[in-house]
Amino acid sequence: MSESADPCESASDEPEPISGIEISVSSCADRLADELRDAARHAITSHGIQTGQLEIAVVDDAEMRAQHARWMDDDSTTDSLAFDLRDIPDDRIVDGQLIVCESLARRRAEAAGHAWEHELTLYVIHGCLHLCGFDDREPADADEMHAEEDRILLALGLPAVFSRGESRDEGASS
Fold first, then answer.
1. DSSP-assigned letter for residue 162
2. 15-45, pLDDT tens digit by residue?
3. What distance in Å separates the CA atoms of residue 48 and residue 132, rounded to the nearest whole number?
4. Buried b vs exposed e over 29-63: b needs ≥16 C-beta within 10 Å?
5. How far apart are CA 64 and CA 39, in angstroms?
6. Rounded to two decimals, what is the model's pTM?
7. Which CATH class for the 12-159 domain?
8. CB contact at 8 A, 88 and 154
9. Going along the chain, which residue ranges are E strands?
10. Which residues contact 85 (CB under 8 A, 6 or more apart)?
């Protein structure tokens, strides 16, 4: 199968079990899906989770607005939505869904001067950290979460975002 010119034209829905975690990524090319899967796996396993499943959907503005309105009663675009689907809380298991917005990633990356794929990776990491119990509603908690995002980005060989002081004001994360 050859890659298309647009990294999000094809779909990679095949879950890849590693360390007992199945991660599927929909609506983007295999190469990008692999990168997002690796980022999610790293974020999750670095917080002690070794089993479960995670579904990641890459969407455009219209779909993100629709999902944000449906689940958060807010019809604006946001970078990511995270849904913890566990019936019983268990810090060793992930069962969740992430929705991340490619359109917003492209705009923010262009404004910041970095690759949109890296921005989208940040959104996946952010969502995974929410599934691991991180919260960003209070300033101190947000600082802790952003520092952890930067740690994971650096561990993946990507540049840190928040330590560079980039503005994140378009689209709040959920």
1. G
2. 444 468 999 999 999 999 999 999 999 999 9
3. 9
4. bbebbebbbbbbbbbbbebebebbbbbbbbbebeb
5. 21
6. 0.84
7. alpha beta
8. no
9. 12-18, 21-26, 51-59, 80-84, 93-101
10. 95, 96, 97
